[in-house]
Amino acid sequence: MVTFKLNGKTVQGEEGQYILQVAEKYGVAIPTLCHHKALEPAGMCRLCTVELFDGRRSRYVTACNYPIWEGMEVNTDSETVHQGRKLIVELLLARCPDVPVLQKLAAKYGIDEPRFKKEGDDCILCGLCTRMCEKMGNNAISLTGRGVEMKVDTPFHVQTDICMACGACASVCPTGHITLEKIAREITKKNAILIPSEYDMGLKGRKPVYVPYAQAVPNTPAIDRDVCMHFKTGGCKVCTEFCGVNAIDHSMQDEIVELNVGAIILAPGFQPFDPSKFDNYDYANHPNVITAMEFERVLSASGPTGGHLVRLSDHKEPKKIAWFQCVGSRDINKCDHAYCSSVCCMYAIKEAVIAKEHADYDLDCAVFYMDMRTHGKDFERFYNRAKEDHGIRFLRSRVHSVTPIAGSDDLVVRYVSETGEAKTEIFDMIVLSVGLETSPETIELSKKLGIELTPGNYARTTTFEPVATSKKGIFVCGAFQGPRDIPQAVVDSSAASAS
To answer: Which of 410, 352, 409, 412 has its CA nearest to residue 382?
Structure first.
């Protein structure tokens, strides 16, 4: 261990550590803009400058990249150090006057306005982005030019296919100079987009290391090898720097485990129907036509809008919302699903009621349906409450088409009323109540196990053995048994377990 004095107190650090690391250990705050735990220090911003006394004289060094040694004395908050940092902040503020992190630092050091000419830039040349790109194993960007001409750029100042569009540079940029939009526009030839969060239906992004959702089992982070930069380039491993218990092992391999069991219960669930097959609803082309699952995430406090009811195109509060029922159900023309998905009517009513409760204004909700199937306990009562207490409109009609209004994000809905009259109505947002279907992977699994399926691709069972498949010893529960809601799936699960 190395022993030295920090602000007059005796402290210890390990051989090879820097002043900043030891200061953080002892709770001594040293400001910095160019330091990152996963990157080699560079001392670019000079904001972490401290006063070092070596026994003969004092000098000033950058704490982030100056190694500790025995007997040294360090002062992190002397008047000279304070004035030096104040000047650095003032110079940076003059270069980047609109950057929030610099404005906050300026307020801390009592700087109202810089004495120097403002430049209107937003890059402080800290080098974090270039060092992170090097850490990723790419070196797609670097600091180019000299003096006042220095800037972050690509080789030859053109978009490059070396950049993997991983966004790591944007994640460490302290000023917001680098964004995904800028990466797509100026740096990479690849498609720079966020990794879509499956739980949030692609409405917001997630990290390569993530927990699938809050109630995941097991509730532990996992690495997505398809997007992890280490598995793409062999570089990075930044996550290992932040894992305090050294739980991350990139060398782990998949393994096949064989088990001898007496019975198998199939509970593969379902997949939501893809409504892009209904081109007359314009789902794939218009951001304000969304599925019921996507609308659930919009309403959720942990969702992409923080639970604030807004439409996705412009984040304005919708005044009129329409729900289209039986999208992917009871239709043999566009999806070959003759069955009713069982849950769509009730979740549409629930969403409409919650939407009305979220809105602090007069929100118009309309549900276009074929038949309203409210067969569960108190379901009919809830349906009547939605109509009578909340003023939700229910229109028996199969919508013909949806047409966007040019120059607007509104949508024209064309339909035929119960009286046979052709009508049009303008809505701000449309929610598609998509049905349930069996995934191709589940169908393939069924073939491997040798169990029979119904014409709707659900496990075939009998009236007297509702959880037994055609293969002895293999049972089924949940949505693979047929479309059903949560209470019914729980009952089926108990029956399958008891069998």
So the answer is: 352
DSSP string across 328-383:
TSSBSSSS-B-S--SSHHHHHHHHHHHHHHH-SS--EEEEEES-----STTHHHHH
What tens digit of pLDDT does each residue of 276-292 get?
A: 988 899 998 999 999 99
- Supply φ then ψ for residue 440, to 5 degrees: -60, -35
- In this prediction, residue 105 has a pLDDT band, given cuts at 50, 70 and 90, of very high
Q: What is the C-alpha to C-alpha distance for residues 324 and 400, in angstroms, rounded to an integer?
A: 11
SS3 label, residue 249:
coil
Last residue of a domain, one of 434, 459, 482: 434
Question: What is the span of the domain harbouring residue 29?
Answer: 2-77
Q: How far apart are CA 392 and CA 123, in angstroms?
A: 52
| Residue type at 46 in one-letter notation | R
Does 29 fall in a domain? yes
* CB-based contacts of 210-215 (< 8 A; 24+ apart in sequence): 214/302
In angstroms, rounded to a whole number, what is the distance separating the alpha carbons of residues 145 and 151? 7
pTM (2 d.p.):
0.81
Instruction: For residues 168 and 171, give the distance between their C-alpha atoms in angstroms, rounded to a whole number.
Output: 5
Give yes or no: residues 429 and 442 share one domain.
no
